[in-house]
Structures are given as C-alpha cells and as structure tokens.
Design goal:
Blueprint lengths: L17 E12 L9 E17 L4 E6 L6 E4 L13 H12 L7 E7 L9 H17 L5 H15 L7 H7 L5 E6 L5 E5 L5 E7 L9 H17 L4 H4 L4 H5 L4 H25 L3 H17 L6 H12 L3 E7 L6 E7 L3 H16 L4 E5 L6 E3 L3
Parallel strand pairs: 3-5
Antiparallel strand pairs: 1-2, 1-12, 2-5, 2-6, 3-4, 6-7, 8-10, 8-11, 9-10
Helix pairs in contact: 1-2, 1-3, 2-3, 2-4, 3-4, 5-8, 8-9, 10-11
Length: about 375
C-alpha cells in the first residue's frame, strides 16, 4: 500500500510546548513471521520514549537525547536525505517521510528521554519513530490515517536505518489499546484486539543484558533466507506455504532454508494456538506454545544466544511460570514470560537469584500491563 499525500488544509502550528509519549512493545508470540506474511501478537508496554517539545521561530529541528552528549540538528527548509549515524537516523527518516508528503514542518527543540532500554528487543526504534511522527502531526495540526503513519515509520527504518523490518513494531505501537494485545495478520493487515485483563496471569519481561542490533547482517540474512525458501517453493511468501502440505514441500529445500521455513510455518500455528488458549484461560497450552516458540527460534531460526537460553531454562524450574520465550529480533535482548500474578514477587526473586548464579549479573525485570499507543501530554 502506497502512502497517500495528505491534502487536508494545515491549521496553525502550535505555539506552545507539549510532551509526546510512545510505548515500547513486547511480542508475546509470532517471531520473525511479520516479514513472511504471518500472524503476530504484540502488545504495548509501560516503558516508553518521551519527547518534550518547544516550537522554534526558525526552520531548525534540534534534537537532544539524554543518552547522547551532542544535539542533532536538521534544517527543515531542505529535503532530508540522510540521518547520520546511530539514533539520529530514525527521526531523520520520519521527518523526511512527512516532507515527501508535502508537509511544511515548523522548527522545534526536542528533549528525548526514555524508560525503554535501547537494544533490548522492546522496539525502542519504533517507539522513537512514532513519537517523532506524533510530534510532527501535533506541530502541524493535522494527521495521517493510523495505517499510513505506521507505514511511513516502517519506510523510515528501511531507508534511513537500513533495517529491513516487517510491519509488526510500527503497527503494534500505533494501534496499541490499553488492556489488549494486538493480533495482526501481516498478509492483509487485518487486526483485532485481544483482551489482556485477566488477573490470574501477568506478563514478565526480563532483560538478558545482551544488547542486539537489527542493523547487523544476521537479521538481513534471515530475511533473505526466508525469501529464498519461498522462491524455491514457488510461493509469494512462507505464509502461503503453510496452506498446503508444507512438511512434504520442505524436503525439497536446502537444509538452511528448510529450517528457516519450518520455524516460520510452525510459529504461525503456535500463534493461533496461543491466542485460542489465552481466550480460554488455558495457561498450560499457552505456555507450551511459548516454550515451543523459543525452541524453534533457537534450533531452526538460530537467533537466540546463551543468555536467553539460560533464562528460558530457568523458567522451566520455577513454579508459577506457565511459559517463557525470547522476544524481539534475537541475538540478545529480553525474554517474555507468562506467570501467575499471585506469585510474581517470588518468581522474580527466583529468576534473579538463578540468573545471577548462572551469569554473575543481576537481570533487570519488570511486570507490565498492556499499554495504550502514542499520546500527547502536558499541553501548556
């Protein structure tokens, strides 16, 4: 779907300051399936990116991150074609996307802070992109349709950050609804919100302490291997392969493509199983799907690491943990676990003790609720 140029009349830019908040996300299940037209089940989390914005009288955008010593400045009177390095490429790509649509973005100062860890697999990049997009729309007094907004941010990540991501992260942040996960079909972009309000279970996220970068070659390589498998099977995507006798079909593939395709197809099935179990409060079945997902990501997709595997192994030993899996692109980051709410303090303490014994470090962890999407606060 191509982005449509917004032709609605622009209102007067805001002359007052405001704060934009955009959440991170955790993917409950459905990993590396979004760019294969599969199902995913992310939900927004309590941790977020915050941007405090003050309008300027000139056409400069001056962005200062609390995590960086130097500010980044963009001249909005010129078409942006590059975002530099590190974190600056993400806002640059979003700014360029709105410029491409013909929007005249006024100058502004922005102070960026975060409770969301970078490189933890919790989609800090999509949160930053959607926060910048919401900032631009607030300054300009106009907005894109949600889907177009999410696709613009995805394109920004492709072109400026050089990450060939699927649509999950941007859609998960954009369409997030408090108290719900988002079941997204990446083939036709249909979606529905799945309630996450049951008091019996909670979602626990544990950071392995190993940072990852999806700009690395491994992520691009996995995507290329999936595309190669689909081409060899003569289907448009591995989602299409799942509709037939896929076990027989996969025997014709080279070993690597066979393993990648097997993960994608079985992960699609596990996602449907997990959602059905969630809606029936069948925590045992939901947990088994999570453990199966991790095993597949470790063995067939080969995107786990020793620290993530250790956390999942620990999960198997702790009463009250229904299921646990790595979440995000892999090669580090976090695991997500479905746990008994009543035992949350004990479960966290046991995870912390066992991981310290295994790795010699304390793991950061938190229980999260399903949060809402981007919002504007503190208008003055």
């Amino acid at each position: 779907m191509l982005l449509q140029r917004d032709t609605s009349p622009a209102s007067t830019s805001r002359a007052t300051g405001f704060t934009v908040v955009a959440p991170g996300r955790v993917n409950l299940i459905g990993e590396h399936t979004d760019y294969n037209d599969g199902l995913v089940l992310p939900m927004a989390i309590d941790l977020s990116i915050q941007i405090t914005v003050s309008p300027r009288q000139d056409r400069l955008a001056v962005l200062q991150s609390e995590c960086a010593s130097d500010a980044v400045t963009f001249d909005l009177s010129r078409v942006l074609v590059t975002g530099g390095k590190d974190w600056a490429c993400y806002p640059a790509g979003v700014l360029a996307g709105y410029q491409r649509l013909g929007w005249e973005i006024p100058g502004f100062d922005a102070l960026i802070s975060a409770t969301l860890p970078s490189g933890g697999g919790l989609s800090s990049s999509a949160a930053l992109e959607l926060a910048i997009a919401t900032l631009i729309e607030t300054l300009c007094g106009r907005s894109l349709a949600f889907e177009d907004k999410a696709l613009l941010c995805q394109r920004a990540e492709h072109e400026f950050a050089r990450v060939p991501c699927g649509i999950m992260d941007q859609f998960a942040v954009t369409f997030a609804k408090a108290g719900h996960a988002l079941l997204l079909d990446c083939r036709d972009r249909s979606m529905r919100h799945v309630p996450m309000l049951c008091g019996e279970v909670s979602v626990l996220i544990i950071n392995s302490g190993v940072k990852h970068s999806l700009a690395g070659s491994e992520y691009s390589q996995r995507r290329a291997q999936c595309e190669s498998a689909a081409k060899l099977l003569d289907v448009s995507s591995l989602r299409q392969a799942s509709d037939g006798d896929w076990k027989t079909m996969l025997t014709a593939l080279p070993l690597v493509e066979q393993k990648r395709a097997r993960h994608v197809i079985t992960e699609h099935e596990r996602t449907m199983t997990f959602v059905a179990a969630l809606e029936q409060s069948d925590w045992r079945t939901a947990g088994a799907a999570m453990y199966g997902s991790h095993d597949s990501l470790r063995d067939d997709f080969e995107v786990s690491c020793a620290e993530l595997d250790a956390l999942v192994e620990i999960a198997h030993t702790i009463p009250g943990v229904h299921g646990c899996r790595m979440t995000g692109g892999g090669f580090g980051g976090c695991v997500v676990a479905l746990i008994e709410t009543a035992r949350s303090p004990q479960i966290m303490a046991e995870f912390r003790q066992a991981y310290r014994k295994h790795q010699g470090v304390d793991a950061e962890m938190f229980v999260t609720r399903a949060a809402a999407g981007p919002r504007v606060m503190s208008l003055s």
